[in-house]
Design a protein that fits this description.
heterodimer; A: 116 residues; four-stranded antiparallel beta sheet; 3 helices; B: 260 residues; three-stranded antiparallel beta sheet
């Protein structure tokens, strides 16, 4: 009988271990969700030199949108600027890199606002 | 038939990804992006239509790979013609607000498909340079390309020079909108010329081959942030083909779109 009760106890402790693990995973998930929900966005403008046609603007927009954490991009052709909304954590160098990879010359980056 | 091959030759080299309709341009394709182009060239006198499918892929911000698949319909025959594969490298780039200047070199090979009456049947090498100056509503493009053909057993297609000069003018909107990038309409004026040496068969020059021609072209295009629709009408103003041959008027319609 004793071995059976030991086995039962083992099963119980296993279940408890699993419960603890599931709780941990769920807590971490909730933590990430909370960070995501409360993470600040930033709105910046990037100067794009050399832009003068809509399809070139489209190419720059596509390239910036490939950066993880970028939420929206709008190109203003007449101003030669891109307005980007992205996670605060996205470094400005990424925008410089994207404009360069699109074949144009990046200029100043200005932060317009931060928001939650 | 020789006039047809010259027309062919001109069309092969007249790919473009940015603004001019019939010429090479220096404006780059962004890294890891692509531009597809579907272009139809109709020459009523030669009774020939060339449907070109082309893909340009940005290997780097300044390096573009171009692959072209020309499908030819010509008096009773049709098929895939010789396939050019080119690399374009931007060497000089000067960008300012609403203005860009580019100088690029390009080179590559042309792989024959050996199609009976469509292929030129000689492996070709192409090398050239392309210049672009774009400033707000104006754009000027110029290119010069040399095409060298390696002889096969008994046939040597003539080497050639291709040259283009293009001017474009944005007429709508007259002034760019304050916000965003609206679609625009451009007028396009081009000169598209080719000079080709005579072909040789068993080292003997063929009388009715080679020569030169120059087209005066005008067209219109609609450009959005993702696609370009355009049409071009070409009138031959220099028609000095060897033998009893001539070039007729020509229409080009084309669609281009950003991909990836």
């Amino acid at each position: 009988m004793e071995p059976d009760s030991e086995k039962a106890c083992d099963k119980m402790s296993c279940l408890r271990d699993w419960e603890v693990k599931v709780k941990k995973v769920f807590s971490i998930f909730l933590l990430f969700m909370a960070i995501e929900a409360f993470a600040a966005d930033k709105t910046i403008t990037v100067q794009v030199k050399g832009l003068s046609c809509p399809i070139c603007a489209g190419a720059v927009e596509k390239q910036i949108k490939k950066i993880p954490g970028v939420k929206s991009v709008k190109i203003h052709l007449s101003q030669g600027r891109a307005t980007v909304v992205a996670d605060e954590t996205v470094p400005n160098e990424k925008f410089i890199e994207a404009v360069t990879e699109a074949g144009f010359t990046p200029g100043d980056i200005e932060k317009v606002e931060s928001s939650k | 038939m020789r006039a047809v091959s010259l027309l062919f030759f001109a069309v092969f080299t007249q790919i473009s990804w940015a603004m001019p309709i019939a010429t090479e341009v220096a404006l780059p394709v962004a890294r890891d992006q692509g531009v597809v182009r579907i272009k139809s060239t109709v020459n009523s006198q030669a009774q020939k239509t060339i449907n070109l499918f082309a893909l340009a892929y940005g290997l780097h911000a300044d390096t573009t790979l171009i692959v072209m698949l020309p499908y030819v319909h010509s008096s009773g025959t049709s098929g895939l013609s010789d396939v050019p594969i080119l690399l374009r490298q931007t060497l000089i780039k000067s960008d300012e607000h609403l203005r860009t200047l580019r100088l690029a070199v390009l080179g590559g090979i042309e792989i024959p498909t050996w199609h009976d009456s469509i292929s030129q049947k000689n492996v070709g090498l192409k090398a050239g340079s392309v210049f672009t100056l774009q400033s707000d509503r104006h754009e000027v493009d110029a290119d010069l390309i040399y095409s060298h053909k390696f002889p096969s057993a008994d046939f040597n297609k003539g080497n050639a020079f291709i040259y283009d000069l293009a001017y474009q003018f944005r007429f709508y909107p007259w002034n760019l909108v304050e916000e965003g990038a609206s679609s625009q309409w451009n007028l396009d004026f081009e000169l598209n010329g080719t000079y080709e040496e005579r072909d040789k068969v068993d080292s003997v020059e063929q009388v009715s081959t080679g020569g030169q021609h120059l087209y005066l072209s005008s067209g219109i295009q609609w450009v959005t942030t993702s696609l370009v629709l355009e049409g071009l009408y070409q009138i031959p103003i220099v028609n000095q083909l060897n033998g009893d041959r001539s070039f007729g008027h020509q229409f080009i319609v084309s669609f281009r779109s950003l991909v990836f």
